[in-house]
User: Fold this.
Amino acid sequence: MRAEAQGHVDQINAALALLRRFLDWDRALKRLDELNARVEDQALWDDPKAAQEVMRERRRLEEAIGATREIGSELSDTVELMEMAEAEGDTAMADDAVASLAQLAGRAERDKVAALLAGEADANNTYVEVNSGAGGTESQDWAEMLSRMYTRWAERHGMKVELIDYHAGEQAGIKSATYLLKGENAYGYAKTESGVHRLVRISPYDSNARRHTSFASVWVYPEVDDDIDIEIVESDLRIDTYRASGAGGQHINTTDSAVRITHIPTNIVVSCQNQRSQHKNRAEAMKQLKARLYENELQKREAESDAANAAKTDIGWGHQIRSYVLQPYQLVKDLRTGVTSTSPSDVLDGDLDRFMAAALSQRVTGEKVVVEDVE
Assistant:
């Protein structure tokens, strides 16, 4: 078999293996039979909420199992066609088979990622919070670059982006910013971005044109659905108001209506300043707090099941998940998965899908992969 064709076959087989491992194939088949039996039980429909949950789980399993079987069947048929073409010396047929394998490989990767987005909150909208690290203007400029990167990524996927909170840097950039990304599977994709991001470049703020290393942290947490009950005790909260600041134009108010809420037991702090009234800012900040507390619970569950836990540590050396080098060479490297890109400008313009897909896969396999960008 041609090397190109074999490469596609290996990629498809790897995707299928990951899907079966993620689904726990035998258990998934048994569970689907159980769900089909429950759907046929008329008593289930006496509880609409329970029925909805059963139907949702059944649909997810049917789609994942069906896609896995279909890809496996198409792979077998195409490989058989490829072998027949080579045996008969039919170059045109062989070329068609290679093209079909390439398309199937792309589909296998898409279906793999879709199946991996089956977490409890993966389908939810998501908050993305960016904070600059130590380093003053340089780190604050880097934080603003990261904010733009996630905004561009969201726009590429047709998501709506809302600015929730913004604190400008003294000279340039931002100290922190929080965005709400609204779209299908927003949290499922973006959750892999939580951690510390490192930038190496010639600083535009250094008159001696020296190379600087800067850090900024990203924290991703899901918007909480109305049907998820998060209990918050009022006495556990400290609520402060302050005057909004930063580059918000007409959308940032200038009265003391910005709200900061501290959840004392966990020391979680959230803030909002994008609304014109203190009441609305408080309501939005409470939504954020519920989301943060919910995300804490999700992380505990993941840790208990040996899933990769998002890095939320000091913003500095030794804690980064990804490095972005602009000088003396061009390279973005994810330190968890080994995925690289030699086009930082594309990555910073929102080209993050390969990094997210690899991080999702690693949560299942625990293995580090190396995917070089050869463009």
